[in-house]
Amino acid sequence: ELGMVEMTQALRLHDVSYEQVGPDMLISGFLEPIPDLRLTVPSLSETTKIDPALNPYESGIISFYKTWDPYGSFSNFSPHPVEMPDEGGDYFMWLSVEHYYQAQKFYGVQDPVAQDCVLAIKSAKSPEEAARIGRKMQREQPGLVRSDWATAKINVMYRALKCKFSMYPHLNSMLLSTAGSV
């Protein structure tokens, strides 16, 4: 079981490769997250540097679909590992929130194909790959998705995001700086 220091060192060893996929760029491997362990709420000038169009006194819409967007760290695909329980209840360092979320679709399903899918998602080299594996299995073999997924998925995502924003104080500060925005 790796601690945060060992995980950070391990991430430095992963090769990163780039591949054009349609209009998007697929980044395989992981860029090392650089956490700022000091809890600070950005000042007005710092917030404006992130997004000059954002007025903290008016509601705005903040998009974070792509990880390279100004608020891309909020994406489930951002390279921020989270330590969450795996299908056996043991804690595992998932490479992203997306890895954890996709694997949870098959949590507790007593079918070797579903269990292999969880292992494939765990070892996926990128969040995009994890999403592809999970979505494909859900589409092609919907009977392998856990029976309570429709009601459990919101709580699964909530727990994963709570973990992410607890593990990375700089993301927590950034999130808090968006108060009043959509």
TrEMBL record:
**Which Pfam families does its entry note?**
NADAR
Q: Give TM segment ranges.
A: none
* Stretches assigned to the NADAR domain: 64-180
**Per its UniProt record, what InterPro entries does this chain match?**
NADAR, YbiA-like_sf
Q: What's the protein name?
A: NADAR domain-containing protein
